[in-house]
Amino acid sequence: MKSPSSFEMNVAHDVCIDLRATLTSGQAFRWRESAEGIWLGTVERTAIALRQSPQGAPRRFEWQTFPTPNQWRVVADYLRLEVPLEDLYADWESVEPSLAEATRRFRGLRILRQPPQECFFAFQCATCNTVVKIERSVKKLAERYGEPIETPFGILHAFPALDALANADEAVLRGDLWGYRAPRVINLARHLLAKPPLWLESLREAPYLEAKAELVALHGIGAKIADCICAFCLDKDSATPVDTHIRQITCRLFRPDLEGKSLTPRVYDEIAREWHSRFGEYAGWAQQYLFLAEMQGGR
DNA sequence: GCTTAACCTGGACGC
DNA sequence: GCGTCCAGGTTAAGC
Questions:
Q1: What is the pLDDT of residues A253-294, one digit of tens each?
Q2: What is the mean pLDDT of the segment spanning A236-264?
Q3: Distance, angstroms, CA A177 to C1' B10?
Q4: Quick one: which of A130, A162, A203, A243 has the fewest CB in 10 Å?
């Protein structure tokens, strides 16, 4: 691995962001931190290096892109820097004081605008799985089928193209920790190939419920995965994926009456409506703070 | 409209 | 060392 000093980092000022919280909050699975405290990841065919500076400061960070340098738009778009986070905190805390502790702890946590295809397939892996294993599976998938991207830190891999996934070997995928999800990935890639080009991307323009309905119509995608895709790559800021953790948080904070009830479609919708009625247009962002607090416990 | 079982697999846990 | 359980769900069948 070459020294990271062989290139120059740009500096972004006056931006409310916490890179660690954002990149490790369970929305994206392929970011890794180098020994120098630089976060490395890819967006389509661009590799990105990010570093919080100075250590822990939430209003300034360093960045660079590879192989084409200085692609600020790619970075700003991915991190959704256009969203005025600090205005949202005030709104949320006025309606729900219980959020104040999480917004203080994870100040600068942002929802990402990921490449839709990577987000779509990464969350196929999330069913009955652990975050550590999801990360490992998605990494293996990219390394096996994705295009290499050269960086000063070594080779990173773009997320695989649709036709590579459609033609993937099921036995190989199963061996790469995808297990019973392997045939689902291949079938979904073939379904997407049969759609008009950029169909997934076009859902960014659709209203939330319409986009979700399109996703749920695909075999293998239920309400939770559809909401993850809507929230983490399709700009649906009010989408609130209801998983086992969110269900527990909701019962504890807002709806003790739902304790012990199965997560049927009716209960799922009821929980989602609860978050939307409290936090409105950016309910998915508010939810992410309490989700991360839950995942990290009292640390 | 709800419950249940099946679907891979690795790590945590109890014994 | 071994057995059991569980983990960011989805689907289909049975009631």
A1: 999 999 888 899 999 999 999 999 999 999 999 999 999 999
A2: 93
A3: 9
A4: A130
Which nucleotide has the shortest C1'-to-CA distance from A291? C8
Which bases along strand C come within 7 Å of a protein CB atom?
7-12
pLDDT at A74 over 70: yes
How far apart, in whole angstroms, are the C-alpha atoms of residue A172 and residue A175?
Answer: 5
A243 nearest nt, CA–C1' = C8
How do the domains of chain A map onto residue ranges? 10-105, 116-233, 244-295
Question: Annotated active-site positions of A, please?
Answer: 224
**Pair A255, A266: CB distance under 8 Å:** no
Residue nearest to nucleotide B2 (CA to C1'): A264
Distance of CA A299 to the CA centre of its chain: 22
CA of A293 to C1' of C13 (A): 38
C1’ C7 / CA A6, Å: 42
Which protein residues have a C-beta closer than 7 A to any atom of strand B?
A: A 128-130, 132-133, 174-175, 177, 179-180, 183, 261-262, 264-267
- For A116-233, give the CATH class: mainly alpha
In the structure, what pLDDT confidence band is assigned to residue A2 with cuts at 50, 70 and 90?
Answer: very low
The fold for domain A10-105 equals TATA-Binding Protein (3.30.310)
Q: Above 70 in pLDDT, residue A100?
A: yes
What Rg do the C-alpha atoms of chain A give, in angstroms?
19
What average pLDDT is seen over chain A? 94
A263 CA, C14 C1': Å apart = 19
* A104-135 residue pLDDT tens: 999 999 999 999 999 999 999 999 999 999 99
